[in-house]
Amino acid sequence: MKKIVKAAALVICTAFVLAGCSKNAKKDYILATGGTGGTYYPFGGAIANIWNTKIENMNVTAQATGASAENLRLINKGEAEYAIVQNDVMDYAYNGKDLFAGEKLENIMTIGTLYPEVVQIAVSKDSGIKSVADFRGKRISVGDAGSGVEFNAKQILEGYGLTFDDIKKSNLSFKESAEGIQNGTLDGCFVTAGVPNAALQELAFSAGLVLVPVDSVAAEKICKKYNYYTVTSIPGGTYKGTDSDTAALAIKATLAVNAKLDEEIVYQMTKALFENLDSLAAAHAKGKEVSAKAAVTGVSVPFHPGAKKYFTEIGLK
After folding, report:
1. What is the C-alpha to C-alpha distance for residues 94 and 103, in angstroms, rounded to an integer?
2. Which of 20, 26, 82, 263 gets the most CB atoms within 10 Å of its CB?
3. How far is CA 114 from CA 12, 133, 191, 252, 294, in A?
4. Which helix (H) or strand (E) holds 29?
5. What is the pLDDT of residues 101-145, one digit of tens each?
6. Is 15 exposed, middle or buried (0-12, 13-18, 19+ CB in 10 A)?
7. What DSSP assignment string belongs to 257-286?
8. How far apart, in Å, do the first and last CA atoms of the chain sit?
9. What is the spatial distance between Cα 1 and Cα 122, in angstroms, rounded to a whole number?
10. What residues form DSSP beta bridges with 49?
11. Cα-flanking dihedrals φ and ψ of residue 262, to 5°?
């Protein structure tokens, strides 16, 4: 009788173990995004919906956060499995520099880049500025102090042989920067954001603006030193009065992942996302800018093995 009971217990325990290892087990994950009023949060919701509907027993929750820097710390601590972040901020975190000086986060990897966030350089019509080289001695806002925008501005100025000491620097939000150009207290500003940006749109309608290009020589120098940048252009007509395309640099919104996550799971999620981009585009306008081919560009932090497996499978890695 004891042997029968032991045998039955063994069968039950084995069943529980197998159930725990089953591919049908529910998978619960957090996708860290950004503030509810920004782009990352609804875009992350669209990604989570694809994963939840295309992968069996998947349950991904898009969580509102303070965006890139916070997201990377959440992933590193295992408090989120996935996150949308700027690729330049991710580079700082992985290498322990700039925003993350003395704080190297090693538990983060890349799935792929998503869409460009363009470094838009706007100046007043009366400033006479034609090039970033003309910024010497000018009143320029470089974004909030300690922000990714501030580092973008620093790096682009560097491409022209300038530093913050060469300009009259202000640290203002996008809205405050646009208002400063409009009321004459600023000559120009840096705005790193998706195109078009609401603050610049308002400025273009109210007072007008000029977009300053990043020329090919400076762009090559900057991209060579900081490999998370990509070359792009701001289409003519994006802002009122800007009829021609403007050469620019962009960093990219990027899908980051916890390095310890299972390779097969990450493979499935990468595959599901990039094979359902039509659904992503239908759910959010930025989805139209995402492609598998572009997803492997602007990457300076290693790909997760699961993501690399998928991109290799389709001939991109």
Report:
1. 9
2. 82
3. 46, 31, 19, 7, 8
4. strand 27-32
5. 999 999 999 999 999 999 999 999 999 999 999 999 999 999 888
6. exposed
7. EETTS-HHHHHHHHHHHHT-HHHHHHH-GG
8. 60
9. 84
10. none
11. -55, 135
